[in-house]
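Give me the fold.
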Amino acid sequence: MSIVKPSTLPGFMELLPKDQMLFNEMRDIIRDNFEKHGFLPIDTPVIEKSEVLLAKGGGETEKQIYRFSKGDTDMSLRFDLTVPLARYTVEHMNDLSFPFKRYQIGKVYRGEKAQKGRFREFYQCDIDTIGMGELSLVNDAEFPVVIYHTFKDLGFTDFTIHLNNRKILKGFFGSLGIEDSMNVLRIVDKIDKIGEENVLSELSEFGVEKDKGEKILEFIKIKGSTDEIIKALNDLKIENEIFLEGLSEITEVVGYMRDFGIDENCFDIDLKIARGLDYYTGTVYETTLDNYPKIGSVCSGGRYEDLASYYTDKVFPGVGISIGLSRLFYQLNEANIISSEEKSLVDLLIIPMDDCLHQGIKLLNELREKGLKVSVYTEFAKLKKKFKYADQTKVPYVIVLGEEEVNTRKYTLKDMRTGDQEEVTFDELVKKFSKWVRLLWKSFLFGRWLRLELLACKLTKSCPWIFACKNPCSTKSVAA
């Protein structure tokens, strides 16, 4: 029998346990924020009918989709969470309350070229609010608030949520006599990647005269505070109806955002934000980390007027955002912005002597019934090897269970970090670790605060602490 060399496919991320725990913590923070803002969980199948996923048909999506047949069924792996949401909304609309606020965190699949930070299988974290027939602009204002609190809780202090409205761009292009605004939007959306000269060149190839291309560049470079940009747009006196509608909408959205109490320093209006996807029709968002611009957008989305037009005659307007968690985790790890640390998920390891394994399992069950996080070493090995395992897995405490401990119900508890030992009864053990759990929770809360402060220190290159820092911060000290 030949040995098969184990390896993962290109474009598929696989993590060691310590990194997976950090990944899970980030995912939990995102989920907690989604739920805190009233978004309900759903979980759609990874595999959908191809006719459902490809109802729109054509384009890059069809080239990248993983499609296969089983018997007479033509099916595909989902390439995002938005199309399944559209199908879900129509299929269950009689059981849903609108506006329907949902979140989903799950894997999606795209058969694109695998490269650093770009995966074929990756996690997306999506929230959307769907209306039936209509949807208030207040919802557009709530999404930056969710982004704001989520990234604050993830430990970031310097990030910017960039806002724009597609109608502003579309109306401005219309005022220049450009009718096919969608392709122009796609070209403009690439300006940060390809630069102004290449944008002008692509616009020219598309048939946009040079003077109009230069006017577009001049327009999208309007800078200033939020109020200054809104004033500058009003001062242009553009009479295009779509432009005026977009300007009115972004002004209203900013007003609601201020009502929500979002920090003014964490958002701006950026007229070059277009979002290349053609289903966005109004407000669009992109979020970047101020000190790490090369990472690009870490959260994006926008408003669409009709989510499910391929499945129903009813109109479902919506607004949503997506965090590409796998890519975000990879990029932050590569940039040394986050780092994982070895830790145990249990507080106590029972190490039974070889003839006391049955009693060790019974003690395990008794302690677990009391709510303790306990594990038992199950292999027959020398004591030295058992302690080496405890040390490698970073278990905080160990008890060795022999015949005497079984008979007396008194145990020698060893602190693996300090080497200190103490003799405890069963009740004392339960009491100690019930208290230990509470202390761990307090430590977790303080530890998260401390990690966030250290991360803020690293990102801003200055110390945010209110007390004097005796040791200069270093990147190695950040354990997020």
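The CA atoms of residues 455 and 478 lie 6 Å apart.
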